[in-house]
Amino acid sequence: MNKFIAVVGGGLAGTEAAYQIAKRGIDVKLYEMKPTNFSPAHKNENLAEIVCSNSFKSNLITNACGLLKEELRRLDSLLIKIADETSVPAGQALAVDREKFAAKVTSTLEELSEKNNFGKIEIIREEIEDVNKLAENGIVIIATGPLTSEKLAENIKKLTGEKELYFYDAAAPIVEKSSIDFNVAFMGDRYGKGDSNYINLPMNKEEYEKFYNELINAEVVELKEFEKKEIFEGCMPVEVMAKRGIDTLRFGPLKPVGFEDKRTGKRPYALVQLRQDNEEGTLYNMVGFQTNLKFGEQKRVFSLIPGLNNAEFVKYGVMHKNTYINSSKLLDNTCNLKSNKNIYFAGQISGVEGYVESISSGYVAAVNAVQQYNNKEKIIFSNETMIGALTKYISTENEKFQPMNANFGILPQLEENIRDKKIKYEKLAKRALEKI
Q1: What is d(CA 349, CA 113) in angstroms, rounded to the nearest whole number?
Q2: Taking a C-beta distance cutoff of 8 angstroms, is the pair 360, 392 a contact?
Q3: pLDDT tens string for the chain (436 positions)?
């Protein structure tokens, strides 16, 4: 066995993993392909480069990402600590000076080997094309992100036995079941067949036409040039489909046949279906609603659908190139590859979405790689914590799996039914922080 743990990828997950390993006295070889090779989104040579928004989202523990950040603070996350130190004014959110943040992460890791009791971190500026070679004699964490290089992506396909990594072209929004209005919605399957697994939202002609007109005129996210080549293959955004004609959706994903509107006793003019998205049945995704609308527009337009007037969207639809493994099938709840115990995955390639979520998966992978290195029992975080619930979500088999960010819908619900959302989230957060 190698006298070090290898980490491939110097982004948010990889740098957090490297720190957590070194902190526990084990040497790290951290491989980063920049500056030899840059992805289309990366521009500078620093580690932990932030390429999109500079916001790490809310700091409030009544916000799911805020709770996850607080859990990570209590676990001594290096990246959350540096984010706090390089923050810029952003109200209740944590936003950073992206240049200072990346520079400080880089310099901190470069200097770590001088600290007593810390393992040495060797930063190797080299593109890894074959993970198997690293895993033959040691433990490897793959944290190469949503824009993994083509050669390594091909290698990972062979490694996992999957025909392809997932190019997540256009994904549908996900809502909390508890926020759906069941005075309108009803459970059932088309023509009464099946086990009534779908939530159905009927619309009359006036409701549909209002929704349709807002949908086709809503603002969309502009794609980057390198994403445009592949983006529409196999996935048609709902707003693009709608522009083909006012009745296109009614003969497609909003087809009303086989249903009766419980309020009128007649077939609805159009009908939206929601499909269960997690094992506990607390989250449902909008069937056929892959979209590239801006997040604010999704909230505004989709809330016009009867039954979703007060819906909590735990994940908005997105549309961009994103390489990730089918973690729900391939990983266990320590981020370890089931078919090769020497390999862990972390960051967005593991099926989490978001900056803080990537950091948390780097933490989980690192502490368990260390446990394996030391021949000790793995650490499984309670699913009543956000870090544990997120890890459980991405490692629980799901035929319709898509990447997930932190949200209260993935936590086990409280025994008491609390209608006030703020009080409910406060109680869930308190329980999580007691468990962490």
Answers
A1: 28
A2: no
A3: 789 999 999 999 999 999 999 999 999 999 999 877 766 656 678 999 987 778 899 999 999 999 999 999 999 999 999 999 999 878 888 989 988 999 999 999 998 866 778 999 999 999 999 998 899 999 999 999 887 888 898 999 999 988 777 665 567 899 999 999 999 999 988 888 777 788 999 999 999 999 999 999 999 987 665 455 444 444 678 998 999 999 999 999 999 999 988 888 899 999 999 988 877 888 998 988 988 899 999 999 999 999 999 999 988 887 766 788 999 999 999 999 999 999 999 999 999 989 999 999 999 999 999 999 999 999 999 999 999 999 999 999 988 888 899 999 999 999 998 889 899 999 999 999 999 9
Rounded to whole angstroms, the Cα distance separating 1 from 4 reads 8
Q: Would you identify the CATH topology of the domain 174-315?
A: Elongation Factor Tu (Ef-tu); domain 3 (2.40.30)
CA distance 283 to 175: 6
At 211, the amino acid letter reads F
Cα gap 94→428, rounded to integer Å? 21
Q: What whole-number distance in Å separates Cα of residue 289 and Cα of residue 273?
A: 10
List b or e across 342-375, with b for residues whose CB sees 16 or more CB atoms inside 10 angstroms. Answer: bbbbbbbbbbbbbbbbbbbbbbbbbbbbbebbee
Residue 220 and residue 239 in contact, taking contact as beta carbons nearer than 8 Å: yes
| Amino acid, single-letter form, for residue 417 | N
Number of H helices, E strands in the chain: 14, 16
pTM listed for this prediction: 0.76
Token duo for residue 223: 């794609």
Give the whole-angstrom CA distance, residue 199 versus residue 101.
Answer: 44
CATH superfamily to which 4-168+323-435 belongs: FAD/NAD(P)-binding domain (3.50.50.60)
Delimit the domains of the chain by residue range: 4-168+323-435, 174-315
